[in-house]
Specification:
The complex is a heterodimer of chains A (448) and B (71). Chain A is of the alpha+beta class and 448 residues long. Chain A contains 14 helices and 22 strands. Chain A starts with a strand and ends in a 15-residue tail after the last helix. In chain B, the strands form two sheets. Chain B has a four-stranded antiparallel β-sheet, with no helix packed on it. In chain B, strands 5-4-2-7 form a four-stranded antiparallel β-sheet, with no helix packed on it. Classes of the chains: A alpha+beta (448), B mainly beta (71). Chain A binds chain B through residues 55, 341-342, 349-353, 380-384, and chain B through 8-12, 34-38, 40, 60.
């Protein structure tokens, strides 16, 4: 049984978790950096503790400072949110050792899925399809050439230790392979302190489709259907929706089964997401697993009517899953867009500043998750996500109309935002038809 | 004519990639800023040699602030 929850995060996700805690009658503890003294998540919690200076390494990524805050406040559980320490198995382990319940999967599951080649190997062994490629990191350019001879070009070099798209390089043909290999290795070493690379076939125009999973640690694992997240740039999602438009019933069922099989194979507990790429033929390939709550979880909540954060808290408290699989159904259509403090006119450069004026949309079918209020300082130290706007409709077309109207009503002054870009996506004929793939944004499909 | 290189965004100096005396080409990164989890190079506007670096790693710079001087 849990009593007091510390949220080791900031912004909209900290506020979201506090809301779920209040719903269950749990006490809440916020932590904050010196840059966040006046942040809304601090005001939302029952109590708040300063954990360090503005740079994340000295505050929201500082395990000792967060564990100290948990001790001082008497919290008995920690919710990591997303980003920061949420996929750091050492943090999950340190919480457990400190006698705190980590609201997420056990440390070994985080560790296994965090090592991308290990994750690939485990999923393949469990019968989950993976993108053709090297099972292990490749030692050098000569070894890379041998792998390329089997899987063909184009291929993509990826950092085994990495994530978030950092250090990935597409290689079109054999002539480029050796130099691309040394560049990718150097980048991976600089970014992650580990130059290990693996190789995958590069899929042209794939869709990114993912499946929400929830396990209770008593053998119960359910899926909460798929989300389409193909509108992304630099591997950061911008728009997500559920159901994924136009999926054949067999493809949909295959995805869900693969996700549950994969989660079961690693004894997964709590909320997680299995990410897949889908090619034009409808073949799906495991990409990676996110061992945490996702930014886009409201899409699934709105389409199923279920509260994932409440479910996370209940599972962490040792309760069995409240919903059998057959009761989890998608109703209507839901689309979310992420409003970032980035300037679409200047190539999406970060746009820190102070929020001078804020008017958030509301209305039928609209949900808003905001990390800011008027006067909030949008700092250079953290992620640029400001607000998520989520629209539910009886049909996809209605959800799009509602979301477009909500974006028109949304006023954020003081920083540049991605709202003008998001409007163009929602108005685009290909998006409206559900013809999307992960390379559209970078190919300029939505340029003004 | 010396030319000041100004930061085009507000950020924290992540890395200083050149030293005084270094020759640079137009478009070469002189320093790298970090802002909102993105690394953004501040590039030399033209070819030349770096006369002076005016910032330190970890320092916050405002948009428009001079970070280096090109000869």
């Amino acid at each position: 049984v849990l009593g007091k929850i510390l949220v080791a995060n900031r912004g909209e996700i900290a506020r979201r978790v506090f809301r779920a805690c209040r719903q269950l009658g749990l006490k809440t503890v916020a932590v904050y950096s010196e840059a966040d003294r006046d942040a809304p998540h601090v005001a939302d919690a029952d109590e708040a503790l300063l954990i360090g200076p503005p740079p994340a390494r000295q505050s929201y990524l500082n395990i000792e400072a967060i564990l100290n805050a948990a001790r001082r406040s008497g919290a008995d559980a920690v919710h990591p949110g997303y980003g920061f320490l949420s996929e750091n198995w050492r943090f999950a382990d340190a919480c457990t050792r400190a006698g705190l319940t980590f609201i997420g999967p056990p440390a070994p599951a985080i560790r296994q899925m965090g090592d991308k080649t290990e994750a690939r190997r485990l999923m393949q062994a469990a019968g989950v399809p993976v993108v053709p490629g090297s099972a292990e990191p490749v030692a050098d350019a000569a070894a890379a050439e041998r792998v390329a001879a089997v899987i063909g070009f184009p291929l993509i070099l990826k950092s085994a230790a990495g994530g978030g798209g950092i250090g990935m390089m597409r290689v079109a043909g054999g002539a480029e392979l050796a130099s691309a290999f040394s560049t990718a290795r150097r980048r991976a070493e600089a970014a992650f302190g580990d130059g290990a690379l693996y190789i995958e076939r590069y899929l042209e125009h794939p869709r990114h489709v993912e499946v929400q999973i929830l396990g209770d640690g008593r053998g119960g694992i359910v899926h909460l259907h798929e989300r389409e997240c193909s509108i992304q740039r630099r591997h950061q999602k911008l728009i997500e929706e559920s159901p994924a438009p136009g999926l054949a019933a067999a493809v949909k069922a295959g995805l869900a089964q693969a996700a549950v099989r994969g989660a079961r194979a690693i004894g997964y507990v709590n909320a997680g997401t299995m990410e897949f790429l889908m090619d034009a033929a409808g073949s799906v390939y495991f990409l990676e697993m996110n061992t945490r709550l996702q930014v886009e979880h409201p899409v699934t909540e709105e389409v199923t009517g279920l509260d994932l954060v409440v479910a996370q808290l209940r599972v962490a408290a040792g309760e069995p899953l409240a919903w059998p699989q057959e009761q989890i159904v998608q109703r209507g259509a839901v689309i979310e867009c992420r409003v970032y403090a980035e300037d679409p006119v200047r190539g999406f450069l970060p746009s820190p500043g102070t929020i001078q004026r804020l008017r958030l949309p509301d209305g039928e079918g609209i949900r808003v998750e905001s990390g800011i209020i008027e006067g909030s300082v949008v700092s250079v130290h953290y992620d640029p996500l400001l607000v998520k706007v989520i629209a539910r409709g009886e049909s996809r077309a209605q959800a799009i109309e509602r979301l477009a109207a909500a974006l028109n009503a949304c006023i954020v002054e003081g920083v540049q935002t991605t709202i003008p870009f998001l409007r163009r996506v929602l108005a685009h004929p290909d998006f409206r038809r559900g013809h999307v793939h992960t390379q559209m944004v970078e190919q300029g499909a939505f340029d003004a | 004519m010396p030319e000041e290189i100004k930061a085009h965004i507000t950020g924290v100096v992540f890395q200083i990639t050149t030293r005084p005396g270094d020759r640079v080409q137009a478009g070469d990164p002189v320093i790298v800023l970090e802002s909102m989890k993105m690394e953004i190079p501040v590039e030399a506007p033209r070819a030349g040699s770096v006369m002076e670096i005016r910032v330190k790693e970890g320092q916050t710079v405002q948009e428009g602030e001079t970070v280096a001087v090109l000869d």
